[in-house]
Amino acid sequence: MAVKKLIILLTIGVLQLACTVTEKPQFIGVEHIEIIESTPKFITFAAQARFLNPNDIGGELQTDEIKVYINNNEMASVSTENFEVPAKKEFSIPLKTHVPTNSIFSNKNLGGLIGSLFSKQVKVQYKGDIKYKVFGFSHTYTVDVTENVKIKY
């Protein structure tokens, strides 16, 4: 009976050592910032945060309060439900937000808006944190990316 327990404990120990959990997923970057929908009430911006998870075990990513700036003015924030991280895989999480049209056309954004109309582009910035959690281990990735996004009339 004692040999059986020893074999079970050794098996569990070897499996734990064989599984890579201590490495954090690699944050590749934020890509493909674009306008995906435009209505009289809101403009929807989307981007993809790309990661590579070298671990044998997944985890969870959380995007709390990533701020979205349009022409240097804070317009909205991105908060999504927790995202399940796949094991040993490259993956993306969507960062989508709706910006009210009236906030883009407000007085505080008027100077940037006039410049945007001439250049046919808006400056979009995603800034905040993405948190990774697995088995009590956590890591925070800082997101700060800016792109000029073309406006289609």
Which helices and strands appear, and what pairs or packs with what?
Blueprint: H1 2-18, E1 26-38, E2 42-53, E3 59-62, E4 66-70, E5 73-78, E6 83-85, E7 89-100, H2 101-104, H3 110-119, E8 121-134, E9 137-150
Antiparallel strand pairs: 1-2, 2-7, 3-6, 3-8, 4-5, 4-8, 8-9
Provide structural commentary.
It comes from Tamlana crocina. With 153 residues, the chain is of the alpha+beta class. It has one domain: Sandwich (Immunoglobulin-like). The protein contains three helices and nine strands. Strand 1 and strand 2 form a beta hairpin. The protein is elongated and about 75 Å long.
CATH class: Mainly Beta
Portion in beta strands:
over 45%
In DSSP terms (H or I, runs of 4 or more residues), the helix count works out at 3
Which regions contain 5 or more consecutive residues with pLDDT less than 50? none
Helix-residue proportion: 10-25%
Computed Rg: 21 Å
What is the number of beta strands? 9
Shape: elongated
| CATH level 4 superfamily | Immunoglobulins
Q: Give me the secondary-structure category.
A: alpha+beta
CATH architecture descriptor text: Sandwich
Q: If you average the pLDDT, what whole number results? A: 80
Quaternary structure: single chain
The major beta sheet can be summarized as:
6 strands, antiparallel
Query: Helix-strand pattern, N to C?
Result: HEEEEEEEHHEE
Number of domains: 1
- Distance linking N and C termini: 77 Å
The fold-level CATH name is Immunoglobulin-like
